[in-house]
Design goal:
The protein is of the alpha/beta class. It folds into 3 domains: about 70 residues, Winged helix-like DNA-binding domain superfamily/Winged helix DNA-binding domain (Arc Repressor Mutant, subunit A, Orthogonal Bundle), CATH 1.10.10; about 110 residues, Periplasmic binding protein-like II (D-Maltodextrin-Binding Protein, domain 2, 3-Layer(aba) Sandwich), CATH 3.40.190.10; about 100 residues, 3-Layer(aba) Sandwich (D-Maltodextrin-Binding Protein, domain 2), CATH 3.40.190. Helices cover about 45% and strands about 20% of the residues. A 6-stranded mixed beta sheet has the order 4-3-5-12-6-13, sandwiched between helices. Helix 1 crosses helix 2, helix 1 crosses helix 3 and helix 2 packs across helix 3. Belongs to the LysR transcriptional regulatory family.
Length: about 325
């Protein structure tokens, strides 16, 4: 099993055809086909089925694909570490980040990082589990700054706590349920959640308090879409308090104070267990931690107020 076999398999999976794979790797269609045939001969498995719609992966290929992605990503990270140690670091640093952390600390962390690594570019994903968890698993991103994912086995990840934050219910200004003081007052409204349907997020609070579930629950993979819909409807959502501090003032939103306690959650650095961070990624985490401490000590009144909504665990 050779590296060019793995690259050919990943390229065919991503592009959906031999021609697309060849174009993405700057190779000929014949060389991609040869790599796939060699791979099939070596494994004694059929990996690609040619159809009129392109190239389809067999079940065997789909089983091998995550391993191929991890191997390719690890080799890429190793080369990046070599370049960093030589002082010639370039390329990309990819990670996911929860929105309020991005808004509060990311600019300062990036400025610090670029002072040392000016030739490294960023690929940043909003820290929605459906977006970032698969990328963390296959090594496409180096780490996540966000919640510990409840649907990933503990043996798969390492988690370094950064802070603990509470959550609140959010609505537009003038919402008909804004004066509600209990979850029971809000059951007739639709909820928008920035989580996955298979991860119930904060809604067990209704179960724990022996209340019916809300009228309807919708799942959205973008906080900006949630904010837009909240502003223009009677839907509700559940935000971490730092995000409420950030968004409410500028986006015509308000928090609804209910007597029931919504669980706090830890925010931290999520990495793959057994896969140490590279030199550049580790340095970026250091820059982020420094930015958080600087915000606590010297930040604006707005950012200091934001930090009052969290408990630092660093």
């Amino acid at each position: 099993m050779k590296l060019h076999h793995l690259r050919a398999l990943v390229a065919v999976a991503d592009e959906g055809s031999m021609r697309g794979a060849a174009r993405s790797l700057d190779l000929t269609v014949a060389s991609i086909g040869a790599s796939i045939r060699q791979f099939e001969a070596e494994t004694e498995l059929c990996l690609i089925q040619r159809t009129s719609r392109g190239a389809m992966l067999t079940e065997a290929a789909r089983t091998l694909l995550p391993h191929a992605r991890i191997v390719i990503a690890q080799l890429k990270h190793a080369q990046e570490d070599v370049d960093a140690m030589r002082g010639t670091a370039s390329g990309w640093l990819s990670f996911g980040v929860t929105p309020w952390v991005a808004q509060a600390f990311l600019p300062q962390a990036i400025v610090r990082f670029q002072a040392k690594y000016p030739d490294i570019h960023f690929q940043i994903f909003e820290g929605h589990p459906a977006i970032v968890n698969p990328r963390l698993r296959d090594g496409t991103i180096s780490f996540i700054i966000g919640r510990r994912a409840p649907n990933i086995a503990g043996s798969e990840i390492s988690f370094r706590p950064v802070c603990l934050c509470g959550y609140g219910i959010v609505a537009r200004l003038g919402h008909p349920g804004a004066d509600g003081r209990s979850l029971a007052d809000l059951c007739d409204f639709d909820f928008l959640l920035c989580t996955d349907p298979d991860v119930q997020g904060q809604l067990p609070i209704f179960v724990r308090n022996n209340l019916p579930m809300p009228k309807a629950i919708h799942y959205v993979h973008s906080i900006s879409v949630v904010v837009y819909m909240l502003q223009r409807s009677n839907m509700l959502s559940i935000f971490p308090w730092p995000l409420i501090e950030i968004e409410a003032k500028h986006k015509n939103l308000c928090a609804i104070s209910v007597r029931e306690q919504i669980d706090e959650q830890e925010i931290g650095i999520v990495t793959r267990a057994g896969h140490p961070l590279g030199v550049a990624a580790s340095f970026f985490i250091d820059c982020l931690v420094d930015a958080i401490h600087e915000t606590v000590e010297k930040g604006s009144s707005e950012t200091r107020r934001l930090m009052q909504a969290v408990d630092l665990l660093l």
